[in-house]
Specification:
The protein is of the alpha/beta class. It is built from 14 helices and ten strands. Among the domains are: 142-176, no CATH class; 186-349, 3-Layer(aba) Sandwich (Rossmann fold), CATH 3.40.50.
Length: 349
Amino acid sequence: MTPAGGAPDGAPAIAALGGGHGLYATLSAARRFARHVTAVVTVADDGGSSGRLRSELGVIPPGDLRMALAALAADDPEIRGWTRTVQHRFGGVGALAGHSVGNLILAGLTEVLGDPVAALDEVAALLRIRGRVVPMSPIALDIEADVQGLEADPRVSRCIRGQVAVATTPGKVRRVRLLPASPPACPDAVAAITAADMVVLGPGSWFSSVIPHVLVPELLDSLTATSARKVLVLNLAPEPGETAGFSAERHLHVLSQHAPDFDVDFVLVDSATVPPGREREHLARAAGGFGAEVVYADVAARGTHTHDETKLGAVLEDLWGPAAGAGTRSADHDHVHSQVQERENASWQ
């Protein structure tokens, strides 16, 4: 494990949970102020290069893991070339077309070393990453969803299986499950959550990258028991397929349905996505079910539906606050709220 270079004394250790581009944004933000960042990554992808390698070689899907490694890679000139190479995707029409170099390296190292976590640690050392990348489970998982709106009777649900199918369904996802049910957690993921000062869940594909973490019993137990300060980061916009038509409040309701006892300290929302008024009142009530306070701030990259790593990092650092290592909400909470409120006010001017 390599601590983040230049992190000040008292900077937190962060465990960031998710997958894909959402986790990439969180990791890019967290590394700006944390002393150590562990990415806990979903392993249910069944599409593209990851799906092919998973099917042909029986490895856990490497794509989201590769992206997390790239997000945490050192920004040194001699490392940037390696990071670009790991992220490079082959073109053409042959057998390698569409595969990322990093996916192939991870698959090969897993076969050589016999352990996907050891393979990740090897690539992490190559990229001198700021922290560690681990899978949420040591085995590849499948996602199964109950989806309405695909039959003539809109009340009838159809079972859809596979992450890609769930993410692109034209129906309304009501509930998701992992297959196998109650899968094992990666011990390193559990240890990272237990040791963290701050845990960040989201943003990302809600049903396929965020909710799966609370469906792994050991992960949910560690998330419930940890003394870390927990932040849930909401998406900037509904996703076609998975969450089309979802309000911010609805995102919280479906997460609660899947993990009724899950609690967080803060729900972080981009201020432009939920205008002041009744929507914020409804969201505050939904967040209350998690024991959380809603924090509004400008965290979007201008003109996009993606999080700006500098803005997100600054707000997460504010939410960590000056009482580094406290691990729970404490007397600095009013100070934190004031800092973030000032940031939000500036975003509306």
